[in-house]
Amino acid sequence: MEKVILGLDLGITSIGWALVNTNDENPDKNEIIDSGVRIFTIAEHPKDGKSLALPRREARGARRTIKRKAQKLRAIKRLLLKRKIITQNEIDNLFIGNKGQKDVWDLRRDALYRELDVKELSRIMIHLAKHRGYFSNRKSEEPSDNEGKAVLSGIGHNKDILENSKYLTVGEYISTKVKKRNGKDTEGKLNYENSVSRAMLIDEINIIFSKQQEFGSKLVSDELLHN
Fold first, then answer.
1. What is the C-alpha separation between 126 and 81, in angstroms, rounded?
2. Do residues 52 and 193 make contact, with C-beta atoms less than 8 angstroms apart?
3. Which has the closest alpha carbon to 190: 158, 147, 223?
4. Which end of the chain has fewer CB atoms within 10 angstroms, the N or the C?
5. What is the 3-state secondary structure (H, E, C) of 119-169?
């Protein structure tokens, strides 16, 4: 039985093809009918080699990040309402008139040393939901891009500090810093010293709940923690 097969070799800047006649009963009659290659210009900027699709890909990634963050915030607010930790009216007014309110980073430190009230605990849980920490799905944990390496370097730096200092959580440590968010340093370079991992934040919320239970708080429970 004779068959005609089209074979394709897809590359970044070329497509190779071959049209082959095959004969299962008589292999001697197998032959290449024709073949060739189509070469085209690679879709990248000639100066820096970046993909022309990079701006669209970055914009799409940013939209996904914003969407996921909004979903997480809605989820934590629904949980607070479901567990009757806070009312809808209190949530609606939780961040209105922030002037005079204690900084949430200071609350994350205070949570280790005193009992929190309803609004303070809610603000901490919402803050932690907004900042979920670095988590990689890569098979290799070490990223190849400079930004990813800088983030892991910052996480490693903070992990060493927690292991060799009096700070109980990464939130307590960052609360002592003047600049608490990543951004440009005095030389205009991006600084990732405040990067934290997902595991570090999970440890923090576990410690906060444990401390609040020690202080006799009726707001926290194991059921709330695992939800």
1. 12
2. no
3. 147
4. N
5. HHHHHHHHHHHHCCCECCCCCCCCCCCHHHHHHHHHHHHHHHHHHCCCCCC
Q: What is the pLDDT of residues 83-120, one digit of tens each?
A: 888 888 888 888 766 666 889 999 999 999 999 999 99
CA distances from 164 to 7, 32, 135, 159, 193 (A): 60, 69, 23, 9, 17
pLDDT band at 124 (very low <50, low <70, confident <90, very high): very high
Domain parsing of the chain, residue ranges: 2-39, 54-225
Could you give the CA distance from residue 130 to residue 111 in angstroms, rounded to a whole number? Answer: 18
53 SS3 class: coil
pLDDT at 172: 95
Number of alpha helices (DSSP H) and beta strands (DSSP E) in the chain: 8, 5
Q: For residue 17, what is the enclosing H or E element?
A: strand 14-23
